[in-house]
Amino acid sequence: MTSGSKTAGEATRQIIDLEKTYLFQNYARYPLALKRGKGCWLYDLDGKRYLDLISGIGVNALGHAHPRITRVIRDQAAQLIHSSNLYYHEYQGRLAKKLAETSGLQRVFFCNSGTEAMEAAIKILHAHGKRTRPDKYEIVALENSFHGRTVGALALTGQPKYRADFEPLMPGVKHVNLCDEAAFEAAVTERTAGIVVETIQGEGGIYPISEQWLRKARALADTYDALLVFDEIQCGIGRPGTHFAYQLHEPAVMPDVVTMAKPIACGLPLGAVVANGKAASAIAPGMHGTTFGGGALACRVALEFYDILDEIMPQMRKVSAQLFDGLNELKRKYAMVKDVRGAGLMIGIEIEFPCKHFVAMGMEQGMLFNVTHETVVRLLPPYILSEKEADKALKGLARIFKKGKPAA
After folding, report:
1. What is the pLDDT of residues 366-392, one digit of tens each?
2. Looking at 308, 335, 357, which one is the last position of a domain?
3. Contact 106, 258 (CB under 8 A)
4. pTM for the structure as a whole
5. Residue 210: beta bridge partners?
6. H and E: helices and strands count for the chain
7. Is 378 contained in some domain?
8. What is d(CA 217, CA 251) in angstroms, rounded to the nearest whole number?
9. H helix or E strand, kind and range, residue 193
């Protein structure tokens, strides 16, 4: 119960009513008000706990109130939070070095979010193309993709439902079907400045892009002097069991540019673009910038996260194998489960019918996850998920699958 005379239910209703009165009504929220978190668990105002299997849509990589992250935030907040990019601080260069070393690329730009990282990547592509010829501005992207909510990132997004209300958007974008190799080859020409692909499509239903397709994209980019951009905002920074999803292949299919954000600062806003020398040289002083990106607090937290990530990645891979084994067993047991796919701790469970009602069923059982693309249960648990917690998740999903469709 909350402080004062209000019950937790009354306090939750008051929070909801306040938001309905004063906020843009652009989110379809669930009637759940969260109070605190610890590890892989979240607690509502009534004290009920929930196993967090969505981690703030892939953001809270180390769960909640991780002691090392909490200590770093407290210490740095007492020293320096923001100074602007007019000056240096001690953490931005160190984090850039870490990202360059783990990605295999050379230079880094820091921003605040994934969609801002995509905007920076678009400017790199356009600047690169303009250096070559005035009409080299086209970008080839995939159908079913999702790259962000700003106008440029939205233009790349290959799902009309996100674009329709805001068109016309940025011109020069071609969307190709993943399964149509001939159309892909025809779309890339001398006018192509870049090819953009989510290495594992997230919002589109957790679809890993095949090594063959990625190598084709690399070859076409090389042939036409285009830059290859991998969007790893959701699927990168440790989530696939490697630092980046393109490193799942051996040898890695190397991009010219990779965008990232969600888990890198464990809940603080931070995004990044990492590029090779050729791509990074397209942006000269004054061509791009940010007020908040790369601040001391976010960068120091990200450095601490990276140190922890190196320690826990072997355990992450072990828990990932447990989840995939258990989910494939559920697939064999329940015919409505059409597919289980993904990598590491990025998992999609495709159901043969629209299954958004599963989310409410999960909340009743004390589990938080979401459904994307109408029919895909999406799991993006914290990287610290234990084997015991993974087993609890599997048992909870089994109970949900057993109930199946809601009553007509």
Report:
1. 999 999 999 999 999 999 999 999 999
2. 308
3. no
4. 0.96
5. none
6. 13, 17
7. yes
8. 15
9. strand 192-198
